[in-house]
Here is the input.
Amino acid sequence: MKLKVDGREVEIGSGLSVKDAARQAGIYIPGLCDHQELEPYGGCRLCLVEIDGIRGFPSSCTTPASEGMVIKTDTPALKSLRQSILEMLLSEHPCICINCERKGKCNEVREAMRKVPQTMGCRYCPKDQRCELQKAVEAIGLTKVDLLPLGGSKEIIRSPFFDRDPNLCILCGRCIRACSSRSQAISFAHRGFDASISTAFDAPLEESGCRFCGACVDVCPTGALVERGGRWAGDPEEIVVTTCPYCSANCQIDLEEKEGKLIRARPEGSKLCVRGRFGLEFVHRDRLERPLVRRGNRLVEVSWEEALSAVAGGLRSTPGEQFELLASGVLTNEALYSAEVFARNTMKGEISVTDVLPILDPGSLQGPILAVGDIAETVPNVELRLREADDLLVISPWKTRLAEVASNWLSPEPGTEVKVISSLTAALSDGLVEGLPGVSAEEIKSASEALRGITVILSPEVGPNVVEAATALAEAAGGRMVRLGSHCNSRGAIRLGLREWSDRRLLSGDLKAMYVIGANPARISEKIRESLEKLSFLVVQDLFLTETAKMADVVLPAASFAEIDGTFMGEGGCILRLRKALRPKGRPDWQITSELASRMGTMWIELTSPEKVLDDFMKRSAKDAVVQEHPDITAQTKVSQDKPFLLYSCPSLYRFGTGTRTSKVSDLRYLEESDVVEMNPKDASALGISLWDEVSVQPNSSVSRARVVISRKVPPGSLRWRRSLRKAEVRAAKVWSDV
Amino acid sequence: MINSSAQKTDAECFTVPQHTTIMGITMDDKVKDLMGSLGRGRGSLIPLLQRVQSEFGYLPRETVAAISDALVISESEVYGVATFYSEFKLKKPGEHTFKVCMGTSCYVSGGGTLLSQIIRRLGVRPGETTSDGKYSLDAVACLGCCSQSPTVVLDDVIHGNVTPSTLESMISELENGSEAL
Here is the structure.
């Protein structure tokens, strides 16, 4: 359609607002509540315009553009309206810098001014120069605020990863709208001058269902919500687009770098979860920078030359069948390929990878969908996509986030998900319908009627029986099954035909030497730790001095994801890039193993650059990956007062894999500080237990303590158990058995 | 490390532990009961809040979670609506509630004096309850009884043409009455 904005003719598509039309015409209309990723709101009243034939001053963000409109965005009346609205807005926002005749000249003393604990004006604000309010003031031409200043004495609300300064908040509601499609933790509360953005009962965010995705921080126009890391860093020197090094959703991230430090990570055309948004500070924490070699009981820093010859010397005499290389599923294609070449060709040994799953990709999510498992905790971004699905069936004993929004939720008794899936298959193929505990025959029948062409999506943590049942169901319904991978490069590992690691050979003592890259098996169990200790030669290549590395004979410092150029295998086999943003602390993984291979004299492929490695990698044909056995996650147990409960361990958003990297991020560690059991309110009141009470959990012979979170997500009689990171460390340090 | 205790100031006012039962019935059941034929969603929120408040005299903290669960509205939004309208109380009111009209007519005929008299006499500020849980005080907007201004509502009974001395006798009657009990 055609319309006129300030005399300029514009042609735009349908479904756009007047503000969009002006934007296309290259005309800026100020606005503070509107945001490209959120629904229009019309709250700030700064984007008012005049439209011929429409009475008054409609807000351009909420008014749909229509054919032949004549819009004026800059008239004296609009200017004066905007100025007085902005003035009122600023009467509740620190604005001394607007009136200041020496503004802009105070940069020389800025460092000292930033030691002031409270933001008094722009130059004291972490958002200085990035603030949208500043831009609006400039665009509207406001030079002074005559109204009496109000407020400025509210307490700053501290939470993990970011702070909220209510004194800087202009109540635009962007954060609430950003949160509404995710955690719904915040809302407007109170009224008038007391109005604020708050959680229910002003409880801390961590008790209000917040998942710390940072979407609120990303949309905040002022300094009210600012991430604590890099708070005062200002604008980045460089922004590098790379791929998130955690789960298999492979979100794209903008890494913001300044003075050699990672100051912020922001979403790049996608939504991020807490791991990608705030969980990357591990690249600056406790990093190894120089190789270590064992001398007696100590690990001593040595040169690369010395360390590599120590590895070559130690491994040269090891027969291939007594050697295994264990690589992490978060390594790049290049690192995996080079490690594979080293393990299979140089060492004539075996290579395996942590958590390889035969992934199938969600692809386009159309038609009916069945989701099984707690995807919100394992692959959060896929969960966000599933929330938007129209026809979603969830089978879960827990009221997961997806179950809350699903069009149909079957809630069988914990541990009987397989039976439900099988009865759906039976109902579909033979027309046999029978009820199960928690799910009636009618529910099965009506659910099975909507299953044709279904996409079954399985979270990585589901057991092999569920996989089998789901495969049968997908087949019977003429649909497909999608199994989500757990690690960011699980797909690359599958493409190379690598197997999932099994601790069998290590525990039986068949191995003499092991080479561990980026994995931390010592954290998994005490038995594994003891077996690792018995190895005659252990090489660990990692970012940190992990529990496994502490036992190693040689430790080689690797470069982190932010310090290398490399690739992951993304959805549908596409290549996703990692780009170098920081100066490497160690060496890229692929370089270390290929250097070792050539040192040990059996290099048959020249691996000189990441491009060359990738090229070779792509030439390799994929082998069929093998479905691996997963340990059964359920175990019957007891809680205090001898009331028996069914105890289920569950995945956690705040911990990834063995938690080596996530434990380096202080606020993620804080969120995982204690073991937590989720308990239904009915059970809690029957036992007289309230929030954060400590209980004993006895899964087998050993007893451990956990704090109670009361949650409607779990049905009565069951508990969900989230183990903390610290406990894992304790376990590895042999204290576990004494508890 | 994060110090979350500072943020709990408001929450600490609510002495009832989360998810208690009243006479053996959980709040979820009670709220479902009160919901009756109300459907899910935002439209039912205010009617349900009113029903819960008339049942308990206020909105006990655990009912907010139960309402959020029953209507599929986030807890923060329920809290937001409950704090927006002064009609809803999140703290347990006293045994007796004074509402002093601050509408124009009552105010000019001495409502402000009556309000400060109660504040002085009972040691309670508008919107608060005495520490012994006996008296609550609210300053309200027009009650629609301007012809009898100034007006004071004591426990849902409207008293018109109130003077400082009639107010004093109302208060002492309450005090003596509670002593007699």
